[in-house]
Amino acid sequence: MFTYILKRLAIAIPTLLLLIVISFVLMHSAPGGPFTSERELPPQVLANLNAKYGLDDPLWRQIVNYVWGIVSEFDFGPSFVYKDRTVNEIIAQGFPITLTYGLLSFAVAVIVGASLGVAAAMRHNSLLDYAAVGVSIGAQVLPNFVMAPILVLVFTLWLSWLPGGGWQGPEYWIMPVIALSTSFMASIARITRSSMLEVLTSNHIRTARAKGLPERQVILRHALKPAMLPVISYLGPAFVAMITGSVVVDIYFSTGGIGKAFVDSALNRDYAVMMGVTILMGALTIFFNLVVDILYGWIDPKIRY
Amino acid sequence: MAMTPEQAVEANALVGKGRSPWSDARRRFFRNKAALVGLAILGFVVVFALFGNFFAQWSNEELDYNVMGQVAELGGPSFASGHYFGTDDLGRDLFARTVQGTQISLAVGLVGALIACIIGTLYGAIAGYVGGRTDNIMMRLVDIFMAVPYMFVLILLLVMYGRSITILFAGIGVISWMEMARIVRGQTLTIKGREFVEAARATGVSAPVIILRHIVPNLLGVIAVYATLLVPLMILTESFISFLGLGVQEPLTSLGALISEGAGTIAYGTTWQLGFPLLFFCLTLFGLFFVGDGLRDALDPKDR
Fold first, then answer.
1. By C-alpha distance, which of B232, B219, B231 is closest to B299?
2. On chain A, which terminus has fewer CB atoms closer than 10 Å, C or N?
3. Residue A30 CB neighbours (<10 A)
């Protein structure tokens, strides 16, 4: 197990470095620097600015400094646009919000999706099964940016039940969570259903039933664990997509999460903030993939470390 | 299923006519009702995108000065004014805009999937065919690439190099070839041990020619299936970026950009601005998903 984790780490760390290097090189090969604007700056001012932000160093030294800043002090540097704020401050402001509704959405997608899938598989070919299949096919074409305006239209404008945006209390969480989790919930339900159906016809389930175990125990003790394996391997990509989707939620519901900072920085070319967010999201993704891999190795004894 | 494969072979023997795997696949596909529905929906969307402009009373750039400023009251869908889908916030005809948006979205899907397919197939086939340490390194690299959240990198790219449609088209394809490479590599591994590859190698055919002439053609079924499944994902990605206002720029538009505009104006009671682009977006994805699933069942029946 220990070597397995080490092996996964051996992939995770270069991935993160690669991401940093890619975004750094991209940023520096862009036509025009971060201080290019409509108003031409006097060359001396520009040179001073470049010197202040270390942009006149050779590229490799800048990368090394940047990575070293992150590794040693967790410092992503200053913002290029807001003179008095560092990237860390900007991220620290939005990150807890993103984390709150992100984790909630993730939990909702997994719990509701898996329960729906298990229920559909247990009542195979029943009305419930057809309903679950129908919902999960329908929800495939309802990504977050489609769900968000529909939810606002129905629950805010027509029914006036929920606030259309902001971040002040639990009632503000509902629509972001639904918007973000719907399509993943559907996918998880579909995957759970088909893998559960497969497991339910396998020999060890027949044995469990033959020896007279109550159905509840057959499902919970014997069928659930193997049936969850494909679901777990789907969690990695789902998490990445959810992180990405949080950008839409932040923009549309004005929740003030980190996605807002990302799009704002993209629009006013604040490269430092963009890179900071990209790297943070990348690190989260890579960390989560690591957790999924370890979970997978722990649940499936067939995986050799 | 009406006939088992054995019966089908027998029936063929009686008629005395062979069937290629492709015609087998075609029969399986046309027996699949969901796939046919998907094909019909997709056909409708494509016809709409290609010929919709012949029915439009307005072009996508004309401003209708009669409704300007009173879009919520006068800009609704009506046959009398010639705006079948209503107008957008500026008084442009939404029907023509939706036609244009559907065209761009379909184009992004096709071009993106094509690029992803070409890169993924070549990468996977080379890794699988060469094997050994090269294969190991190449696939490790794919593992690493797959863990990068590319949506952010793509947005980074778009912002740096101007939000041009070429970069968007190419970028979407370039970030999504990894899954394809894995599948193709797996298939290549099984094919490369076959006699015809051995024969080709024995007669001195060079590796690039073997890959292009003997291996890739035998993978076309798998490639076709995953290509079809890639198209809706490309459209989703593009729409996502355009929804954020970072993708396709005016005067061009895509379904994602139109949904974004419509979503921004629902508070003023102009629901049609959201509804029609949304409808076509969902129809397109529905059609593509069903056709893709149908193709997978038809061309890759053991994969179920």
1. B219
2. N
3. 18
Nearest chain A residue to B263 by CA distance is A149
- How many Cα atoms within 13 Å fall on the side-chain side of residue A117? 31
Q: How far apart are CA B39 and CA B18, in angstroms?
A: 27
Residues B140, B144, B145: CA angle, nearest 5 degrees = 115
Please say whether the beta carbons of A106 and A207 come within 8 A: no
Percent of chain A exceeding pLDDT 90 equals 3
User: Nearest Cα to A151, choosing from A130, A181, A128?
Assistant: A181
B134/B194 Cα distance (integer angstroms): 21
CA angle B275/B276/B281 to nearest 5° reads 100
State whether B156 and A14 contact (CB < 8 Å). Answer: no
- Cβ neighbors of B61 (< 8 A, separation 6 or more) are B92, B251
From chain A, the residues in CB contact with B149 under 8 A are 240, 243-244, 278, 281-282, 285
Q: What chain A residue is nearest to B240 in terms of C-alpha separation?
A: A145
Residues of chain A short of pLDDT 70, as ranges, are 30-40, 54, 301-305
Structure tokens at A70: 């992150």
The per-residue pLDDT for range B133-149, each reduced to its tens digit, is 888 888 888 877 777 77
Tokens coding B268: 């003023």
Q: Of B149, B240, B285, which is closest to A141 when you measure between CB atoms?
A: B285
Which pTM value belongs to this model?
0.81
Residue B302: CB atoms within 10 Å? 4
Q: Is residue B65 within 8 Å of residue B91, measured between CB atoms?
A: yes
Q: Reduce the DSSP state of residue A61 to 3 states and report it.
A: helix
pLDDT at position B118: 92
- Looking at residue A140, what is its pLDDT? 76
Q: How far apart are CA A283 and CA A12, in angstroms?
A: 9
Query: A292-301 as b/e, with b when 16 or more CB fall inside 10 Å?
Result: bbeebbeeee
Q: What mean pLDDT value characterizes chain B?
A: 81
Evaluate whether B86 touches B270 at the Cβ level (below 8 Å): yes
